[in-house]
């Protein structure tokens, strides 16, 4: 099971995510309270083992800027959290995770255009394009629509509910940001607890 801890902005949180067994760590380059500069992400990423994928999160960013940051930071994957097209995704030089907001349980038909990529299911955008800590309506989702897709479940996950999300969706991976924070800051114990919970499933 892939485990992605997103919105990392301190060395201690990166180290805890890696030591606890995260498979992916995420840096937010879009407008967000978790936004980091490429220079700082490069610094945070420098001792991350090659086995852990470094993911850069972007929202409707200019493709040239994405490519520049991928090269500068040494990103392994890019998470597209805006209205990016499949044509745009196809031009990114590293594997793509394409996020979709799930409203009223409806899996958008547009996921069909991203079959070559990994899909990420999130709550619909709120103040920012994501990272709101809100879950979508898990019970309303037609799970057959996800057949044949590699996908992350995200949106409002935390150490307490991630087991239920895995049981319902049987996803390729789970992704969390707000649910491993306390008062808006990454909480090292919650990161560890979240990863342990997933590993014990
Ligand atoms: O984390 C952010 O600040 C963020 C900003 C803009 C787009 C996406 C963002 N985060 C991603 O949103 C989902 C759900 O996060 P949460 O666990 O509900 O807080 C996750 O994929 C984050 O990577």
UniProtKB/TrEMBL annotation:
- Gene Ontology MF term list: phosphoribosylanthranilate isomerase activity
- Protein name according to UniProt: N-(5'-phosphoribosyl)anthranilate isomerase
Q: Which residues form the signal peptide?
A: none
Q: InterPro entries in the record, alphabetically?
A: Aldolase_TIM (IPR013785), PRAI_dom (IPR001240), RibuloseP-bd_barrel (IPR011060), TrpF_fam (IPR044643)
Task: Give the N-(5'phosphoribosyl) anthranilate isomerase (PRAI) domain ranges.
Answer: 3-195
Report the Gene3D superfamilies cross-referenced here. Answer: Aldolase class I
Q: Which organism is it from?
A: Pseudolactococcus reticulitermitis
Q: Which gene encodes it?
A: trpF
EC id: 5.3.1.24
Q: Which is a GO BP term held by this UniProt record? A: L-tryptophan biosynthetic process
């Amino acid at each position: 099971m892939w485990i992605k801890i997103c919105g990392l902005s301190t060395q201690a949180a990166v180290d805890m995510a890696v030591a606890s067994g995260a498979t992916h760590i995420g840096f937010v380059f879009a407008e967000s309270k978790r936004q980091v500069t490429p220079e700082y992400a490069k610094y945070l990423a420098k001792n991350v083992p090659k086995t852990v994928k470094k993911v850069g999160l972007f929202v409707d960013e200019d493709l040239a800027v994405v490519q520049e940051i991928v090269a500068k930071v040494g990103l392994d994957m890019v998470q597209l959290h805006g209205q990016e097209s499949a044509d745009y995704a196809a031009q990114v030089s590293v594997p793509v995770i394409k996020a979709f907001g799930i409203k009223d349980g409806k899996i958008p038909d547009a996921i069909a255009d991203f079959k070559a990529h990994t899909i990420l299911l999130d709550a619909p955008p709120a103040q920012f394009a994501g990272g709101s800590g809100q879950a979508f309506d898990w019970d309303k989702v037609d799970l057959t629509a996800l057949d044949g897709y590699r996908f992350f479940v995200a949106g409002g996950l935390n150490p307490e509910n991630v087991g239920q999300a895995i049981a319902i969706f049987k996803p390729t991976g789970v992704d969390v940001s707000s649910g491993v924070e306390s008062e808006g800051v990454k909480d090292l114990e919650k990161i560890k607890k979240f990863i342990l919970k997933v590993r014990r499933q």
